[in-house]
Amino acid sequence: MSFSFENKVALVTGAASGIGLATAKAFAQAGAAVALADVNGEAAQAQAETLVAAGHKAIGLRCDVSNIDQVEAMINDTVAAFGRLDAAFNNAGIQNILAEIADATVEDYDRVMSVNLRGVWACMKFELEHMRRQGSGTIVNCSSLGGLVGGAERANYHAAKHGVIGLTKSAALEYAARNIRVNAVCPGLIWTPMADQMVASGQGEALEGMTKAVPMGRHGQPEEIADAVLWLSSTSSSYVTGQSISVDGGFVMR
Ligand SMILES: NC(=O)c1ccc[n+]([C@@H]2O[C@H](COP(=O)([O-])OP(=O)(O)OC[C@H]3O[C@@H](n4cnc5c(N)ncnc54)[C@H](O)[C@@H]3O)[C@@H](O)[C@H]2O)c1
What we know:
By secondary structure, the chain is of the alpha/beta class.
């Protein structure tokens, strides 16, 4: 699928790796100027330089989305560099430490919520402030299949990802009549460095079991999420807002 984002500006958080990186590349290849933001600023910078060397417009920014001042600076730096903000993909996210709720710690709850839920809220706050003034924009938030179903030992992650869908629907309602659309994407099992980390932390067997449970019988690729994000950010989805689109090989429809 190909869309044109010529003369458009896109911002991607968690852009140094996995789904965020694939989406930043897809936006750049579709003609957008792209701000790649990540808590790993050096990696974001390196990926931006690679895109620039390939003839694209890109900048790398360090931003921890759990820090509201850094989020405000990220939006300001993007607009200062490229003059506007048309499409934002709020993608940065982390896993919780696997534990039953009775054994989980408040520190892990706060850590996961501060990135996966408050981070998305903070990004939307400053993106919408800018898009409202600009009179246009699209936002795609990264939820998960974990935003649609429960997950034993994964309550903190699943609760945050359910919350992302609530933020998405509420923002969509607020801005529907103001030329700003807000949607979410719900990836299923996508092979990224996050999945590698799960294997390294002893969850390889669980991942294998999950892959077998995918109706399509395979895990997905980051580029398959990027395709959905670009569609949701493009004029081809001009009548779509407040939706949470599963891209999961059929996982949650069972
Ligand atoms: N991979 C999957 O199977 C899968 C499934 C469903 C949802 N998701 C979601 O997709 C998103 C991307 O995941 P991925 O698999 O590409 O992971 P990844 O670990 O490959 O990439 C995540 C990126 O986010 C960055 N990041 C982490 N904390 C951050 C913070 N506080 N501020 C800014 N950046 C931060 C990391 O440095 C990394 O570059 C996450 O929100 C994740 O929950 C992934």
